[in-house]
Design brief:
- By secondary structure, the chain is an alpha+beta fold.
- It has five domains: about 35 residues; about 140 residues, Galactose-binding domain-like (Jelly Rolls); about 200 residues, Rhopdopsin 7-helix transmembrane proteins (Up-down Bundle); about 100 residues; about 130 residues, Histidine kinase-like ATPase, C-terminal domain (Heat Shock Protein 90, 2-Layer Sandwich).
- It is about 60% helix and about 15% strand.
- It has 14 helices and 18 strands.
- A six-stranded antiparallel beta sheet has the order 3-2-5-11-8-9, with no helix packed on it. Strands 14-15-16-18-17 form a five-stranded mixed beta sheet.
- A hairpin with a 2-residue loop joins β15 and β16.
- The chain is rod-shaped, with a radius of gyration of 45 Å.
Length: about 625
């Protein structure tokens, strides 16, 4: 009847929205668990037993047996005597069972062996270290009819555990067809589902981790994958029977994973809703490290009480995370955030139940119990993985669209470049002309001007010669030569300006580059603060001019900038020249062979005792700053 109900509910879930389908499947699973028939009238439940703490490996015939009532938890008195104990239960049968019977241990902790009338029936694995883990695994034995006696039948159960973990629920006897079904159902819920979920959740965590590797800027993918992988490690504790490590090592790993998945999922939640909380996130990481180290340092006997407090703290952190998400969902009226908030709230309630059940709190103790959050956590993971994958796909689609737009823009820009090519060629010709003018100015200064100066000196000598009577002619020649030298100097100043003041330097740079940058659609702006009266030597003028020229030429050639600012100001006895662009930038720390322009800039700054600083990063523009002593 229950299987039919579950099948119908599953079919309904498949016809609904995928989010609701997952939740409906979970509800149906819990419904199936709660409504399973126990055929109470057909089975026998034994609760009255006797306990003997003994290291014996076979049922002890004698000893100081103590009466107990199942469910029974080992206390401090039992652990003082040892970790191995025997439970003895008896049942009176007026006649042998007419059908095959079985004996069913619904829950015990940590390992058990089952005997009937001193005959071994079944056990949960190894009783030596590492002890087999059966805390979440039922034990069932199909008893041959021949083993049952008329009258008194004695059932012995060997239980081996460690401090604060020993536990045995009531024993069930009854027909095998009923107990087989009960055992299969319980084994499905407690073991098989956990075993099936592990590879799915682990693969989900690795898949999202791969998405993060491909898209590092979306750090939420990393935190989500880390949380899912930690939960997957913890989920192994639900199903693993024979662990590959010592009991202490396994407990350390399992309990650490419980806290870590909660903390990491909390950090993911903050990043998912785009509300990072750095101080809280740092606290969560510190809390996780503290819990992990504490579990490692305490002994196995103290571990139970230690994990109780740390797991309780993780629940409080879960409450903080959930309440913050609820507030964000309410303020932003975001449906997705609201769904996640509801899921976390349900998960928090299940976590509180599991914490109380695990540590035997009032109201959570029962003969049969289940850790509920273990079934609901994957629903949250798959729900979020679906949306994260959707975000990744959307980002890829946007990227492809931008690439297509970029290709179109590049095509348009190519045409613009072709149109401006002739202009650039003309500019290059002008630049060549300017260089030739500079060369000619040097030749004129060093050649023609020198000859004229020598001619003037010769007239001086001639005028002193007493034999020359017509000095008026010599004076006229000298005047003409001086006028010619003046005109030559004016020509030199026209061809290459003598920039002896800051204003002349700035005017020259502005006049020279305003038109060039404007033609390249680069906005050029100058900013001048109040400057002191400062004359520039020829060496300073030339080197400053060459540094500024190299900087602006580099911007034109390499920076791909749209804005350039030239600032000159006075600060603390220094004249500060600063050129800033918003271009592509470069790695200023990397020393590349072949950067002669940059090397020459540093050399020129040293020649005039100035300090040059170049700051740049990829895609963050470049700042060239030169400090010149104002004195």
């Amino acid at each position: 009847m229950n299987v039919v109900r579950f099948k119908k509910a599953l079919e309904l879930a498949m016809r609904t929205h995928h989010h609701a389908a997952l939740s409906l499947c979970l509800i149906c699973l819990i419904f199936l668990l709660a409504s399973a028939s126990k055929a109470a009238n057909a089975v026998i439940e034994l609760s009255n037993a006797e306990l003997l703490v003994s290291s014996a490996t076979q049922p002890p015939p004698t000893g100081a047996w103590k009466p107990v009532v199942l469910s029974h938890n080992w206390g401090t008195e039992e652990y003082k005597q040892g970790r191995n104990g025997w439970y003895r239960l008896t049942i009176e049968l007026p006649e042998p069972p007419k059908e095959h019977w079985g004996i069913y241990l619904r829950r015990f902790n940590m390992n058990a062996a089952l005997y009937l009338n001193d005959q071994f029936l079944a056990d949960g694995g190894s009783f030596s270290e590492p002890l087999s883990r059966n805390w979440n695994r039922p034990l069932y034995a199909n008893v041959p009819t021949s083993l049952w006696r008329v009258g008194t039948n004695v059932i012995h159960i060997r239980l081996n555990s460690y401090a604060n973990y020993g536990y045995l629920a009531p024993i069930i006897l009854g027909p095998t067809d009923i107990l087989d079904a009960e055992y299969s159902r319980q084994n499905l819920l407690q073991i098989e589902i956990s075993t099936a979920l592990f590879p799915i959740t682990f693969a989900t965590g690795l898949f999202v981790l791969a998405l993060w590797i491909k898209r590092r800027e979306d750090v939420q993918y990393f935190w989500f994958s880390a949380a899912v992988l930690m939960w997957s490690i913890y989920s192994l504790n639900m199903a693993v029977q024979d662990q590959p490590f010592s009991t202490k090592t396994w407990e350390w790993i399992a309990h650490s994973a419980v806290d870590w998945w909660v903390l990491l999922f909390g950090i993911f939640t903050y990043r998912f809703v785009k509300k990072p909380r750095p101080w809280l996130e740092h606290f969560y990481l510190l809390y996780g490290i503290s819990a992990c180290l504490t579990y490692l340092l305490v002994d196995l006997e103290t571990l139970d009480s230690t994990t109780r407090w740390f797991h309780g703290g993780s629940l409080i952190i879960g409450l903080i995370i959930t309440s913050g998400l609820v507030r964000t969902a309410w303020l932003e009226r975001n449906v997705l955030y609201a769904k996640l908030a509801i899921g976390l709230a349900l998960l928090l309630l299940m976590g509180i139940h599991d914490w109380m059940f695990q540590y035997q709190m009032a109201g959570a103790i029962g003969n049969v119990g289940l850790h509920l959050h273990h079934y609901f956590s994957p629903v949250i993971f798959f729900f979020m993985a679906w949306h994260l994958t959707g975000r990744f796909v959307t980002a890829l689609n946007v990227s492809e669209t931008l690439n297509r737009e970029l290709e179109a823009r590049v095509h348009t820009a190519t045409k613009e470049v072709e149109r401006h090519y002739s202009t650039i060629q003309e500019m290059e010709k002008q630049q060549a002309v300017m260089q030739e003018r500079e060369r000619l100015s040097r030749e004129i200064h060093d050649g023609i001007s020198g000859n004229i100066s020598n001619a003037i000196m010769m007239t001086e000598l001639i005028s002193r010669d007493a034999q020359i009577q017509d000095n008026k002619r010599v004076e006229q020649l000298r005047t003409h030569l001086n006028d010619g030298l003046g005109e030559m100097r004016n020509l030199i100043l026209t061809m290459e300006e003598d920039l002896s003041t800051l204003g002349e330097l700035l005017n020259h740079v502005n006049d020279k580059y305003q038109q060039i940058l404007s033609s390249l659609e680069i906005h050029f702006e100058t900013e001048i603060s109040a400057l002191p009266e400062r004359q520039l030597s020829q060496k300073e003028s030339l080197n400053l001019l060459r540094i500024l020229q190299e900087t602006l030429n580099n911007i034109i050639k390499h920076a791909q900038a749209t804005e350039v600012i030239l600032r000159i100001n006075y600060d603390s006895g220094n004249i500060i020249f600063e050129v800033v662009d918003n271009g592509s930038g470069f790695d200023a720390k990397q020393k590349n062979v072949g950067h002669y322009g940059l090397n020459n800039m540093y050399k020129r700054s040293k020649e005039i005792n100035a300090q040059l600083e170049i700051t740049s990063n990829k895609n963050e523009g470049t700042r060239v700053r030169l400090n010149l002593n104002a004195i």
